[in-house]
Specification:
By secondary structure, the chain is α/β, with parallel strands linked by helices. It is built from 16 helices and 23 strands. The strands form six sheets. Strands 1-22-19-18-3-14-15-17-16 form a nine-stranded mixed β-sheet, with helices on both faces. Strand 18, helix 12 and strand 19 form a beta-alpha-beta unit. It is globular.
């Protein structure tokens, strides 16, 4: 194997140098041949370059960029809508998750759980979203885009592939079982829940007075099972979201919500002729407190609701994108609901409930003229896209760290690409007449070791939010399939505010044509195309 690598390296380096020289030359040639944008005469006389000679397209810095899955022309968008939680309101991590975790513990103590829970502490290094929880066996699973299990964690123990196959012989989860036996943990609000469930399993399974079986744990007083622990945590979560979490948050907004220059965003959108709306699941009283904190920053500020053409609270997404609820106007002084028919939206008013059908009717807009910005892959993005063709921009706060880790580990990624190239080369020239398979055991072990190293740089239990090694996760598939655009925001409490923290959308002209990268299908790659590893950065 070492001989093969040594022989291969000089040729790869030669091709890298040759390819880079061609690209630099192409950039100079292209800039001398046409202007930007080119005239019709220049287009008529232009001679195409080979695809591998085209210079790299202009790109903004990764952390300033909006990433594109499907083409979107901003000049064809009439309304831009925003979720509030984790979108306009950037919760500070891990302070906010720690608050949620501690309130969950308090509620479980009130529900009869032992006082030892008081010693539990939120660990921000453990959970990631995009997992599914097996309610029956108590396992956290990370699956790929096709349902294959990449990672299985029980409590805080990472199970081997052999151990995982004892629970799931096919190492596969059917999509129609997700939402039934398997509960998706796809939102940022899920992080404290993931951490607490793991901590409770670690405690109950290690108690001397408890005996565990495959699907339950029992003591001398009660039956404590994985489904029961899951159910109790879910009940506690729903309860604290209504009765405690928001109340505690507004007591110290600077501790839990990052204030950014949100007003500039709305000024630019208004000046460009866009109409804006707020659509949040939060109640009016909480929305008023948070949005006033973000927007009513001085005496010259408008009332928060005046920054929107329409403000809808308690929207009850994803129900809003289906049958919906009754649309009512909110008395902005008392918070009480008014009785009456609403056939148009009035400036400065706040509404509750409703449905997408009522919104589009009253706003006089159709689906593909709306761009909705949110963080919830299911409630904000999948439902609005699948059911009504709204254009979507997904906010992924974790993306900033994912990008930084990816950039710092480019050598590991490149090494993995080289190993996979060698694996493919091992079968060169072999067909059905071959009787002796090549010995790739050392190569496969090296690939596995490299994947583990890569995963650990993101999260020692679950790896990257978007992939396991080079294989894409289910979350990654959902982002690509349902989010037209996606971008990141910084929610780190110890980071200096950046001018672009409010939304990377403002790093582009508001008539911009977002264009997705051209991607080839496997059968469309020819021998004349440069191999990916030759230009890996």
């Amino acid at each position: 194997m070492e001989t093969t690598r040594d022989q291969l390296a000089p040729r790869l380096q030669e091709l890298r140098v040759s390819g880079n020289m061609k690209r630099n030359l192409s950039a100079e040639m292209l800039s001398g041949m046409v202007s930007a944008p080119p005239t019709q005469e220049e287009l008529d006389n232009y001679q195409d370059l080979a695809s591998n000679q085209l210079p790299p397209a202009y790109k903004r810095d990764l952390l300033d960029r909006v990433f594109v899955n499907r083409d979107l022309r901003l000049d064809r968008i009439k309304w831009i809508g925003f979720d509030m939680d984790y979108t306009l309101a950037q919760y500070i991590s891990p302070a906010y998750e720690t608050l949620t975790y501690n309130l969950l513990v308090e509620r479980l103590l009130e529900m009869g759980y032992p006082d030892v829970l008081k010693t539990f502490q939120y660990d921000p290094s453990f959970p990631v979203r995009g997992l599914i929880l097996d309610r029956v066996l108590g396992n956290f699973l990370k699956i790929d885009a096709f349902g294959h299990i990449n990672t299985c964690v029980h409590g805080r123990t990472l199970l081997s592939k052999k151990e995982t196959s004892e629970f799931y012989p096919s190492l596969f989860i059917a999509s129609n079982d997700v939402g039934k036996r398997f509960f998706p943990l796809s939102t940022l609000f899920s992080l404290p829940e993931i951490s607490l469930f793991a901590d409770m399993l670690e405690y109950f399974e290690k108690r001397p007075s408890l005996t565990g079986s495959q699907d339950s744990l029992s003591d001398e007083l009660s039956q404590v099972s994985y489904p029961n622990i899951f159910s109790d945590i879910r009940v506690a979560i729903d309860w604290i979201h209504i009765n405690r979490l928001k109340q505690e948050t507004v007591k110290d907004l600077p501790k839990y919500i990052k204030r950014t220059d949100t007003k500039l965003l709305f000024k630019r959108l208004r000046d460009a002729g866009f109409k804006t709306f707020l659509l949040t699941n939060s109640e009016y009283w909480y929305t008023r407190e948070v949005m006033a904190y973000l927007l009513d920053t001085n005496k010259e500020s408008l009332p928060w609701q005046d920054y929107f053409d329409v403000a809808i609270v308690n929207g009850r997404k994803p129900l809003f994108f289906g049958e919906g609820t009754t649309l009512r106007e909110v008395n902005i002084d008392t918070g009480n609901l008014k009785i009456g028919t609403i056939d148009s939206f009035k400036p400065g008013r706040v509404y509750e409930g409703g449905s997408i059908k009522l919104f589009e009717k009253n706003a006089q807009v159709k689906g593909n003229q709306v761009l909705y910005v949110g963080d919830h892959i299911y409630a904000d993005i999948i439902k609005s896209k699948k059911m009504h063709a709204w254009r979507t921009l997904l906010i992924i706060p974790e993306l900033e760290r994912e990008i930084n880790v990816w950039k710092s580990n480019s050598k590991l990624y490149n090494h993995l690409r080289n190993l996979e190239f060698m694996k493919a080369e091992a079968y060169r020239g072999l067909d059905s007449a071959a009787t002796e398979p090549p010995d790739t055991s050392a190569l496969r072990a090296s690939i596995k070791s490299t994947v583990v190293q890569l995963n650990n740089t993101y999260n020692s239990h679950f790896g990257s939010l978007f992939r396991s090694g080079t294989k894409q996760s289910q979350f990654s598939m959902q982002v690509q399939r349902y989010a037209d655009l996606y971008t990141c925001k910084s929610i780190l409490s110890n980071e200096i505010d950046r001018v672009d923290d409010y939304l990377n959308l403002l790093n582009y002209p508001l008539f911009y044509h977002f264009t997705a990268e051209n991607s080839s299908l496997p059968h469309e790659v020819t021998n004349n195309d440069p191999h990916p590893i030759l230009y890996a950065s």
